[in-house]
Amino acid sequence: MPPQPAPINVPDPILVLDRVSRIYFTKGNIFGRGAQRVVALNQLSLSIGRGEVFGLVGESGSGKTTAGRLIVRLEEPDEGSILLEGGDITHLKGRQMQDYRRRVQMVFQDPYQSLNPQVSIADSVAEPLITNRIGDPRDHLRRVLEVLDTVGLSPAEDFVYRFPHQLSGGQRQRVAIARAIVVQPGLLVADEPTSMLDASYSAQIFDILLGVRGQMGATIIFITHSLAAARYLCDRIAVIYHGHLMEIGPAAQVIANPKHPYTQALIDATPKFGRCEAVPVYGTLLSAPREASGLAGCPFFPRCRRAERLLCSRSYPDWHPAGPEQAALCHFAQPDHGDGEPAPGEACRLGGG
Amino acid sequence: MSKLLKASPRLARRHPWQERLAEDWRVFRSSLLGKIGMALLLLFGLMAAGSYIPPLLDPMYHPMTGVDPLVLKSTPPSARHWLGTDFMGRDIFSQLLAGARVAFMVGVSAAFMAVVLGTAVGMTAGYMGRLTETILMRLADMIMVMPTLLIILLLAALFGKLNIWTIVLMIALFRWPGVSRVIRAQTLSLKQRPFIDAARVAGASHFRIIFRHIMPNVLPLAFLYMTFRVTAAIVIEAGLAFLGFGDPGTVSWGMMLQWVWKTGHMFTAPYWLLPPGICISLITLSFYMLGRAMDEVLDPRLREEGQRE
C-alpha cells in the first residue's frame, strides 16, 4: 500500500506537496547494467500553512534537501505535484517559471559556496531584482541597502562593494538571506542555513529568519538535521526518513512527546547536558541494522528496535493520530499503545555516562 | 564593472580579479621560466615595434621592396647591412624585424580567435550537456584529429596563394577543439557549484548564468591556453610559408626561410638562414615558457614549496 497523506488538516495552505517522488538513477555501464535506483523521496505529501515556519527534519540522506530543491524547482519531481497557492507549479516553464522565481526563494546550506566569488555583494543581492525586472535599475542600490540593513549588515554601505572572500561565514549567510528576501518572496526555503557556521552565529541567523517572517509575512520552510534548531525556530515539523514522512506535528509537541521510533531515535542522538537522570532515553535504534525484508514494509524496519518482524517487515504502517495535529506513521503509534514510553535516566553522553 | 558599481565610485573597492592578479603576478615573478619567457617576449616585442624604423631611415631598408642599389646578390653582414642581404639585395635585419611583427600578429590573433571560439563552444557544451554536448564534442574530436598543416596546404593548393588573414582564420578554425575540451571540463565542475543553483533560484537565465557566473571563472584558464595556441599558430604559419604557401605579400620568418631555400643559399649563407630559424624557435619557446609559468599560477599544485604562505 502506498503511503497516504498524513491526516492533518491545514486550513489555508500556501504550499502543498501531493505524493511527490524523486528517484535518482546511478549510471550503470554502457548497456545500463548495474544502474541503481535511489529513491530520494517516496510519495511525500505535505501541506504548509501560510505564515508558519515549517521544519523538515531528518538525518543525512533522508531526502529533506531533495524536498527543498523540488520546492524551489531546481529539480522536477518524477511523480506527484506541487501546488503553490493552489496553482500547480510542478512543470512550469518560461514566463510562469520566471514569475514563480520571485515568489519562492532559497537560502543555501554553505555560504562559502553559494555566492559567486567574482560577484560583489551589491550585484549578488541585486541579481533577483535584475533577473525579475523589478523596479528601476536606479532603485536597485537603495533596495539592496535596505535588505542588507534588514539582515543586520550595517552600515550597509560598508558591505555593498565587498566581495564574498572579504566576509565571514556568518556575514555571507546574511548576504545570502538578503539576496533571497530582496524580491519579497511569499515562501522562503532555508536549507540548513547554519550547519556550516559557528554555533554563536546560528542563533543570530535564526532570529533574522524569524524577523523576516515577522516583517514580510513570509512562510519559511526550514530544513535541518538538528531537532534543537527546529524546536527553537519552527511552528510545526515533519520528520523524514529515507524519503518517507514518518511523523508530523507541532514542533514543541513532537519533540516533547515523539510517537515515532525514528523521531525518538533522533532525540536520543541529540547531545545532552546537565542533569542527565531527568532526560528520557527511548533507545529505539538498533545498534546493528538488520536486513531489509525487501517487502513493502515499514521503511524504518531495518533499524527499529521495537519492530515486530511479522508485522513491520510486511505491511506499510498507517497514520496514527497522536495528540492535536500530530500523527505518526508507525504500527505502534496508537495513543492507547503502551510501548514508546521513555526509560528515565542514563542519558548522559558527557563524563563517560 | 557593473552598473551598480559605477553608480557610486566612492564605495568602489578592488575587484577580486584585481587582487588575484596582484597575487598571481607575485607567483609568476618567482618562476624562472616565466621570467625568461617574459624577457624573450619583451625582446621580440621591441623587434616588432622597431620594425617600423628601418624603412623610415632609407627606402632600401624596406623589408619587401627595398633593394640596395649597390648589392644585387646575397652578401654577408656589414656595417651597412647588419645581418647581410638576401639574393636581391634586401636587408635581412629589417626583414627579421618585420618577421617579428608578423609572428605576433599571426600568433596572437589566431590564438585569440581559437580561444574565443573554443571557450564559447566549451562553455555551451559543458553547460547544456546532453545532445548539444555530444554533438559539439564529437565535432571537436573530429577537428582535433585533422592534420592542420596538411589541410591548409590542400586548401592553399586548391585556391592559390592565401592571404595572411585567411591563414590566421584557418589556424583558428582548426585549433579551437583543445581549448573547448579544457573549458568544458572546467564548466562541468563549475556547474555543480552551489552558486549556480543560487543564480537559478534568483531567476537567472541560461545566458546570464553562462556569461555572468561561469565565464569569469573560466577566463583565466582560457588565457593560459591562449599562450599555447600562439606557439602553435606561429609554427603552422612558418611551416606554410616555408613550403611556399604563405602570403607572398608578407615578410614572415617562414617566408625568409623559403627564400633561402629556393634561391639555393641554404648551405652557403648561414647569416641568412640562422636568424629566422633561431627567432622561430625562441618565440615559440618564450610563449611556451610563459604558458608554463601561468600554469603554475593557476594550478597551486604545481607551485614549489614556500611560494605561497
Fold and architecture overview:
The complex is a heterodimer of chains A (353) and B (309). Chain A has two domains: 198 residues, P-loop containing nucleotide triphosphate hydrolases (Rossmann fold); 96 residues, no CATH class. Chain A is 29% helix and 21% strand. Chain A has eleven helices and twelve strands. In chain A, α3 packs parallel to α6 and α6 packs parallel to α7. The radius of gyration of chain A is 22 Å and the shape is globular. The C terminus of chain A is likely disordered. Chain B has one domain: Orthogonal Bundle (MetI-like fold), CATH 1.10.3720. Chain B is built from twelve helices and no strands. The interface between A and B is medium-sized, with 40 and 29 residues.
Short structural summary:
The complex is a heterodimer of chains A (353) and B (309). Chain A has 353 residues and is an alpha/beta fold.
- Domain unit count of chain A: 2
**Rg from Cα of chain A:** 22 Å
CATH-defined architecture of the largest domain in chain A: 3-Layer(aba) Sandwich
Low-confidence stretches of chain B: 5-12, 305-309
Alpha-beta classification of chain B: mainly alpha
> How many distinct helices of chain B?
12
Strand coverage percent of chain B: under 5%
Q: What distance lies between the first and last C-alpha atoms of chain B, to the nearest angstrom?
A: 30 Å
H-E order of chain B: HHHHHHHHHHHH
Mean pLDDT figure of chain B:
82
**Alpha-beta classification of chain A:** alpha/beta
Gross morphology of chain A is globular
Count of helical stretches of chain A:
11
Looking across the biggest beta sheet of chain A, what order are the strands in?
A: 6-7-8-3-9-10-12-11
Task: Note the topology.
The complex is a heterodimer of chains A (353) and B (309).
Chain A: E1 13-25, E2 37-49, E3 53-57, H1 64-71, E4 79-84, E5 87-88, H2 94-103, E6 104-107, H3 121-131, H4 137-150, H5 157-160, H6 169-181, E7 187-191, H7 199-216, E8 219-224, H8 227-233, E9 236-241, E10 244-250, H9 251-256, H10 261-268, H11 309-312, E11 319-321, E12 327-329
Parallel strand pairs in A: 3-8, 3-9, 6-7, 7-8
Antiparallel strand pairs in A: 1-2, 1-4, 4-5, 9-10, 10-12, 11-12
Helix pairs in contact in A: 3-4, 3-6, 4-6, 6-7
Chain B: H1 3-7, H2 16-29, H3 32-50, H4 53-57, H5 92-128, H6 130-144, H7 148-159, H8 164-191, H9 194-201, H10 206-242, H11 253-262, H12 270-298
Helix pairs in contact in B: 2-12, 3-5, 3-12, 5-6, 5-8, 5-10, 5-12, 6-8, 8-10, 9-10, 10-11, 10-12, 11-12
